[in-house]
Amino acid sequence: MTRTSVDLVASVEDAWPQLQRLETWEGVAGIEDLRDGKHDADGNLQSFKFAMDTAVGRVDGKATVKSSKPGMTITGEQKGLAITLMVVLRQAEVGSVAMIDASSKATSFLSKPLELALNALLDNAIDDEAAKIAERVR
What we know:
Layout: E1 2-8, H1 12-19, H2 22-25, E2 31-39, E3 45-54, E4 57-68, E5 71-78, E6 81-91, E7 96-106, H3 112-136
Antiparallel strand pairs: 1-7, 2-3, 3-4, 4-5, 5-6, 6-7
């Protein structure tokens, strides 16, 4: 699992609703074409559809979101890979801090090389992905 943290200008109260918007997640960790977002009665994101370019081509998937303020976990599985992105907000003296964990796991022995490649990519890109989130949460 790859981990990082990033400072946010917004407080937890102001940042949380922004994490529930699909636009905040567009392009993060390679997920694109986010659509069909479902929210619960409190406005918390529950699921969405997306596309992702992989070594085996472009695939469509559905992500499930489990939220309990101030944390959320986004999971999706496609082409033998389970991808997990966890975000937890913590109040800071000024604004807040988002702690972010990202990982992929092979769901079959055939996708083990993809898991290794994607985790290496996440290791190298996690700080940039966190910066995208921070830029969008204002």
